[in-house]
Amino acid sequence: MSDSSTTREPVAPTGGGGLAGVPGSGGDGSGDGSGRVRVRLDLAYDGTEFSGWARQPNRRTVCGVLEDTLSTVLREDVVLTVAGRTDAGVHAAGQVAHVDLPEAIDVAGLPKRLARALPADVRVFSARVVPAAFDARFAALRRHYEYRVTDAPFGAHPLRRLDTLAWPRQLDVAAMNAASGLMLGERDFCAYCRRREGATTIRELQRLEWVREGDLLTAFVSADAFCHSMVRSLVGALLAVGEGRKPVEWPASLLSLHSRSSEVTVAPPHGLSLVRVDYPADEDLAARAEITRNVRVATAG
């Protein structure tokens, strides 16, 4: 994906069957005289049959399907920038992406045109022109995820089996929430992340709360950003607390580690959904993107 903003040139298909951006490509936004506008796409997908968001050779991915379909419908090369690159099997009800398109395109009509071309497991709900400073990834204030678990003795309801984890033992929500509260704030979550070269694992966890409705438990998880597998790792640790295998203090104690913890089990992907992404007011978009691009450094103490 390309986050840069100069005039796009045609590119060749990648191994995944789609189109990759030329470094430094991607029109420079709405109303700037370039003949192109920046467009925000709000979308959702059932992640069951996708190998995640990001393009991979010979794999069906959300990005690949969307970019290929947009390129066909619009008859030009399209490269998307996304708010959150979800893993294989993870769903999204409120994903956000941006793309730079010619001014002449009927942006408001895109969802209807795409509905005729996209597969049933991905949909674009809305498309609208936004300021050139809008960046789906770097301008985001926070991401909101939900993880669904059921501890019903019969397992997950047949109609929810693809988005709800069936847990075989009763879970103590009070203990899980007590453990969750100890994790909040800006911390180094390297114990809960699969480290990527050059990426920081410092994140501000703003909400981590479990709510029970009958046999269904939903974890509400919000942060400025998440590192790879962070949400599912947090859920896995809290499930261990909920069934009594680990004490309440255990998940927070791992934050003192300087590498990924082998004790943490990553929860399965299908219970997780990206439900919303928050952005600042238009006049604050550029400043927010600049702040996000700065690498966090852990403060002493």
From TrEMBL:
Pfam families the UniProt entry points to: PseudoU_synth_1
Domain Pseudouridine synthase I TruA alpha/beta: 44-138, 182-280
Main enzyme class: isomerase
Gene Ontology BP annotations: tRNA pseudouridine synthesis
Residues given in the record as substrate binding sites: 145
Molecular function as annotated in GO: RNA binding; tRNA pseudouridine(38-40) synthase activity
Enzyme Commission code: 5.4.99.12
Segments of this protein annotated with the region Disordered: 1-33
Domain of life: Bacteria
Ranges annotated as spanning the membrane: none
Isomerase listed as a keyword: yes
Catalysed reactions, semicolon-separated: uridine(38/39/40) in tRNA = pseudouridine(38/39/40) in tRNA
CDD domains assigned: PseudoU_synth_EcTruA
Active site: 87
Gly residues bias: start-end ranges: 14-33
Keyword ATP-binding: no
Keyword annotations from UniProtKB, A to Z: Isomerase, tRNA processing
Quaternary structure (record): Homodimer.
Function: Formation of pseudouridine at positions 38, 39 and 40 in the anticodon stem and loop of transfer RNAs.
Record-stated family: Belongs to the tRNA pseudouridine synthase TruA family.
Protein name, per record: tRNA pseudouridine synthase A
Gene: truA
